[in-house]
Specification:
Organism: Vitis vinifera
Strand content: under 5%
Order of helices and strands: HHHHHH
Keywords: Electron transport, Iron, Membrane, Metal-binding, Oxidoreductase, Respiratory chain, Transmembrane, Transmembrane helix, Transport
CATH class: Mainly Alpha
Subunit structure: Homodimer; disulfide-linked.
Number of strands: 0
EC number: 1.10.3.11
Shape: elongated
CATH architecture: Up-down Bundle
Largest sheet: none
Radius of gyration: 17 Å
CATH superfamily: Alternative oxidase
Number of domains: 1
Oligomer: single chain
Protein name: Ubiquinol oxidase
């Protein structure tokens, strides 16, 4: 969503010769942050080729749907993202419960997460989920 919104606002700003009020940067930073969430969890999960293909297909469908939604009504598109981010927070809360109960092993954090979020070298998956959940709360509030 951040990439689509940032791209469309960038084009609108160029067409109208007006500033975006900083929104382009905010949305593109959100897109980069979401990319890092995906890259981190792909490092943890080690998906097979068909799971990667599923991510690719869903990305293509969602990108086009969100593009059309954003063109029609940016306000509604942002509201939808806020809702999705709230749902992500609930999912991460459940993930943390599963980690705490031992149903999911609390493995060491991948290097990509330690570098991106500047976590301690001995960080675990739980630490990663905590910072990702905080990111999602920020995205919810922005949208």
């Amino acid at each position: 969503p951040g990439m689509v919104g940032g791209m469309l606002l960038h084009c609108k700003s160029l067409r109208r010769f007006e500033h975006s009020g900083g929104w382009i940067r905010v949305l593109l930073e959100e897109a980069e942050n979401e990319r890092m969430h995906l890259m981190t969890f792909m490092e943890v999960a080690k998906p097979r080729w068909y799971e990667r293909a599923l991510v690719f297909a869903v990305q293509g469908i969602f990108w086009n749907f969100y593009f059309v939604a954003y063109v029609i009504s940016p306000k509604v598109a942002h509201r939808a993202v806020g809702y999705l981010e709230e749902e992500a927070i609930h999912s991460y809360n459940e993930f943390i419960k599963e980690l705490d109960s031992g149903n999911i092993p609390n493995v060491p954090a991948p290097a990509i997460a330690i570098d991106y979020w500047r976590l301690a070298p001995d960080s675990t998956l739980r630490d990663v989920v905590m910072v990702v959940r905080a990111d999602e709360a920020h995205h919810r509030d922005v949208n």
